[in-house]
Request: fold
Amino acid sequence: MSTAQPVRPLRHRPREQRSRTASAALHTALAVASLVSVFPVAFIVFVSLRGRDGWQEPTRLVGFDVSNYSHILGETKFLTWFGNSVIVALGATVLGVLIAATAGYAVSRMRFPGHRPLMWTFLVVQMFPMAVLIVPLYNILGELELLDSYTGLIVTYCSISVPFCAWMLKGYFDTVPVEIDEAGRVDGLTPFGTFWRLIVPLARPGLAVTGFYSFITAWGEVAFATQFMSSEEHYTLAVGLQTFVGQQKAEWGLMTAAAVLITIPAALVFFVAQRHLVAGLTAGGTKG
Reply:
């Protein structure tokens, strides 16, 4: 009889170590890339603290003040424009995510006539450039009497964000096991109840990604807001900032200060949604 030989444990190969030169080159490249990405933002903040005419000599390291910020907040309608942008961006985010989530879930779980052409239609409409859509959307909103209104701008932004968000959420819902829907039906939930009470809590990463995309799309959009909003009390930030640029002179100091203030809400939304962004983007791209 042959005796069993003892099994020798596998030895893991030591992880290859980078040379000091390669490590230094990598860290140098990362440092340079970080500086390149941070420099435009830092430069805008720097110029905004140099006063109304400080942009003419941006290399001087004296004469810092907050006169640009005080002028914008106290002597312009920046706060009104800011409030209008918040209303439009939040409205477009909530409505767009709701429509995209229900559309993506329906295509992911239900088989109805035209469900595949529906998703391809969403993809095709994303190929049209924004300049081509301004005239037809203007005519449609004019016939519906929605020009120069929050509702018209919210619907317009939803038409931009919903196709992409529906595609992403459809891919995310495909990763959720169908057994969860079946368990909901066994417990007596309606299809919408299953979606709202079981699927939506599991889809928070995907909803965070689409919500962030919808918010940023509405927050920084210029072309539609410029054409569709005509009264100053309905101006969004994108339209209001154009009043700082005239035919004879441009108030670059005020523009930079306003740009810094505009980035704060977008940065806050990003920090709130960032822990879901990687998971949502990865899961939404696994199936399609």
Remarks:
- The two ends are 58 Å apart (CA to CA).
- Residues 12-16, 284-288 have pLDDT under 50 and may be disordered.
